Amino acid sequence: xxxxxxxxxxxxxxxxxxxxxxxxxxxxxxxxxxxxxxxxxxxxxxxxxxxxxxxxxxxxxxxxxxxxxxxxxxxxxxxxxxxxxxxxxxxxxxxxxxxxxxxxxxxxxxxxxxxxxxxxxxxxxxxxxxxxxxxxxxxxxxxxxxxxxxxxxxxxxxxxxxxxxxxxxxxxxxxxxxxxxxxxxxxxxxxxxxxxxxxxxxxxxxxxxxxxxxxxxxxxxxxxxxxxxxxxx
Length: 233
Known about the structure:
Order of helices and strands: EHEEHEEEHEEEEEHHE
CATH topology: BirA Bifunctional Protein, domain 2
Low-confidence stretches: none
Distance between the termini: 12 Å
Strand content: 25-35%
Structural class: alpha/beta
CATH superfamily: Bira Bifunctional Protein, Domain 2
Radius of gyration: 18 Å
Oligomer: single chain
């Protein structure tokens, strides 16, 4: 059973969290590169991490995204107390902000399974199982990463969790963003994930009440450990 270090960063500036991710990611990659020149008995074990946090209002654009999906200019961003970053994950544009639980698994998939498709499906399944504990039925939308509600009804389909990852040498970074008590009006300033015909939602909107975010984190951790057959330390 693999061990994964769990770190709750709390409310943290997006760039600060990104830099921290890069630091951990680079350390794991460097360990793997060094191991190539060592006999198996001398190779170092690579570390795995699960970072959980919240961010102040921020929009991030993935490397395959279209900048035109950001519908506000620099002045309007300042008025909304929001920042904007072009980043090195997959996917298009998304929003992070208070009331949203963001998770960044930095895993050496050589310790688990070398399959990015399976990795993304496991992250989705973790969220699907967590939502089910609150009576929220969710699922996947074919060809679109993330977790959705009423995906079979084009008029009602809405996204509750966005995902975008980067992987190099089978080491992952970036991850998922689950809307818990999120101010959804901030999504009006973008075309979320570049998808024009589907709405976004949150747990509090679906349930009609505020949700205990610490409780949601614990449920996410439980399902993550179960799916990845790991111990969170």
